[in-house]
Amino acid sequence: MQELSRLPGIGPRTAQRLAFHLLDLEPERLHQLATVLLEVKTRLRRCQQCANVSEGEQCEVCADPRRDRTRICVVEE
Predict the structure, then answer these.
(1) Half-sphere exposure of 61 (CA within 13 A, CB side)
(2) Which stretch of DSSP H or E encloses residue 21?
(3) Fewer C-beta neighbours within 10 Å, C or N terminus of the chain?
């Protein structure tokens, strides 16, 4: 639980809830989750243009040829 609570936005209570959930998972489902977590470092990276999460050099938004590159969207919150 200590390692789970080190994740951003995960406090001790949420870490405990996650641990209970993981204990209740079928072994195959738990293995799938573990595999995905291990693949994060090898398969995902930050887009070179906008720093969004991507599997390639650019994210889907930046790589879209139909995108109007003269406009940006600013979100306040």
Answers:
(1) 13
(2) helix 12-24
(3) C
Domains of the chain: 1-43 (1.10.8.420), 44-77 (no CATH)
DSSP readout, 24-53? HS-HHHHHHHHHHHHHHHHH-EE-TTT--E
Mean pLDDT computed over 20-39: 96
CB atoms within 10 A of CB 59: 19
Question: Rounded to whole angstroms, how far apart are CA atoms 44 and 58?
Answer: 11
Q: How much is the pTM? A: 0.64
pLDDT at 72 exceeding the cut of 90: no
Burial degree of 13 (CB within 10 A; 0-12, 13-18, 19+)? exposed
